[in-house]
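hiii so um. not sure if this is the right channel but i have a protein structure encoded as tokens and i wanna go backwards to a sequence. like what aa goes where. can anyone help
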């Protein structure tokens, strides 16, 4: 029987995180470190009891199929923006052997319900551009872009330092 449950067991999250971390290392080795169970386990252990974070598991037939790490975000008002609240999805991962079976959608539905129950009307997330599977999944879930995050790699450009000469 399919269940979505919350957990404080950082070791379960650590194991379920490995495949998505390895994908990030594969897609963006210049940004991601190799998976280090001790370091990543220590990180998850340090935040697992923080009430700002919620860790959800997809359980089916007595086995964990995936997880989500979400955060209750409170954006303060600034001179430029209004204050707002959201649920931010840091990670969502379904084990490779269980993808395409609806587990991700069940997990997202649980996240939507948590947001509603907490008076939050927005669920936010981001994903790496090279992760086409994530892009398709979130499009199917109805997510829309409202901000683009771009970069320019200056290491790839020939330096022109003439203007620095005094």
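sure thing!! here u go:
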């Amino acid at each position: 029987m399919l269940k979505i449950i919350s957990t404080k067991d950082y070791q379960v999250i650590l194991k379920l995180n490995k495949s998505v971390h390895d994908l990030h290392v594969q897609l963006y080795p210049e940004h991601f470190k190799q998976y280090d169970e001790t370091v990543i386990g220590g990180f998850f252990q340090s935040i697992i009891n923080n009430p700002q974070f919620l860790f959800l598991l997809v359980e089916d037939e007595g086995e964990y199929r995936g997880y989500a790490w979400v955060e209750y975000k409170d954006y303060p008002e600034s001179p430029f923006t209004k204050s707002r609240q959201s649920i931010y999805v840091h990670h969502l991962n379904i084990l490779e052997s269980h993808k395409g079976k609806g587990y991700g959608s069940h997990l997202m539905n649980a996240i939507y319900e948590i947001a509603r129950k907490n008076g939050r009307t927005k669920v936010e997330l981001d994903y790496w551009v090279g992760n086409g599977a994530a892009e398709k999944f979130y499009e199917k879930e109805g997510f829309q872009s409202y901000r683009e995050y771009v970069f320019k790699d200056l290491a790839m450009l020939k330096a022109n330092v003439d203007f620095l000469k005094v």
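oh and The mean pLDDT is 92.
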